[in-house]
């Protein structure tokens, strides 16, 4: 799909009229806000899951559907970014998406059951699917070439504030008010972002090009992804493949995805262009970004959940404990964006994996009763990995994509990252964490016998008090075993994460070297 001469004429005209000073700052800020509320909504719900689950009378594991449903629908829409941008116009699509996101956020707050909340979260994720690639594209298009690296860094800094504020805001709002308000706060932010963007960019709309959409491919993709997500979410509750329902979902998912791949290879207007994977940078960059995002996002779910369910943290303090991971990116993201013009992005990506590896090795040393200060220090160190993770890897992955296909490639890149990292990653992380905990609980239980002198002494001491009965001691032991099992499970995930990041350190150097500004030119030329 090549850009027309009129498109390049429009781009040339726009490039001569770049905003400067305060107007440029307000534009970048408005575009950043649009993405801010999407990422905020992903992280703000993490610490609120136990409260939402309790309020809606479901288990904490079922409560994670609030996270996975959003990620799943968000990912499905991402490959359509290029087609939707052509159909509605880049600026209009961004404004429509932000306004609809605000509306669906309000509906999420109005939900009275898990079913209705998940339904509105699916809608919310779908309307937000285009926000990340659109905001990146509009920022690159609206800034002079010499300022694009810094603008991307500024955008990244705004976006990174969301994971910092998300857990704290989510914990505070949930604890002091009620969980629906974690969704209501998106409404005024979204309205401001949409209004500012429209005022500043309505006269710079992209050319409208309305091509047919591959409805067959879209339906197959939606069925395949949705079935896979439901299978992962319900697997543990239904005893996995001992359930005919889980087996049926697995078969439906595999058949739909296989047919989707076969259909897409011969479709005239495919929603996914698999030829991008022929580019080595795109293939390797997408793989390591997705794995890294899966590990990172999984830890943002399991650690707050562990702190609240096993360490007696409130939602607010769990948010405070994990929030420091965003402090370093808040201060250094803009600087990193500027340095990408001089430093090999492959080196930045490798440094990110190394910092993450060390951070997760430190996280693997958690113990029951770990101090708040140690948890915060570990999360702060992991922030050094975050600051050189996303933007360098985007440039490395998309650096050799031709201009007219940049939006499609960006949509596919973010589709895989969000679907596997946020959607499947959350379900897999919770499942592994729970499985490890059950395994450790079984091993620890085997070490406790009525013949162990320490156990005999514990029962003797505890039952000296006439009000303390044997069943009270039994419950105490069970509580201690469960706490220890879950901290060991958290450590197991941390060890696995640390070694995975360490093994990925050399992979970026298997890619071709790319100048960061090249990717920026591509984005602007799309």
Describe this structure in words.
The chain is an all-alpha fold and 526 residues long. The protein folds into 3 domains: 409 residues, Growth Hormone, Chain: A; 57 residues; 48 residues, no CATH class. The chain contains 24 helices and no strands. The N terminus and C terminus are likely disordered.
For the record, the CATH architecture of the largest domain stands as Up-down Bundle
List how many beta strands DSSP finds. Answer: 0
Order of helices and strands: HHHHHHHHHHHHHHHHHHHHHHHH
In CATH, the topology of the largest domain is named Growth Hormone, Chain: A
Mean pLDDT score: 79
- How would a crystallographer describe the biggest sheet? none
* Residue fraction in strands: under 5%
Gross morphology is globular
**Helicity range:** over 70%
Provide tags for this entry:
single chain, 526 residues, mainly alpha, Growth Hormone, Chain: A, 3 domains, globular, disordered N terminus, disordered C terminus
Write a compact overview of the structure shown.
By secondary structure, this protein is mainly α. It has helices at 5-15, 21-44, 49-55, 60-63, 65-77, 81-88, 90-110, 114-127, 131-142, 148-176, 181-184, 186-201, 215-234, 244-266, 280-309, 315-322, 327-339, 345-363, 372-387, 390-398, 406-446, 453-462, 470-504, 516-525.
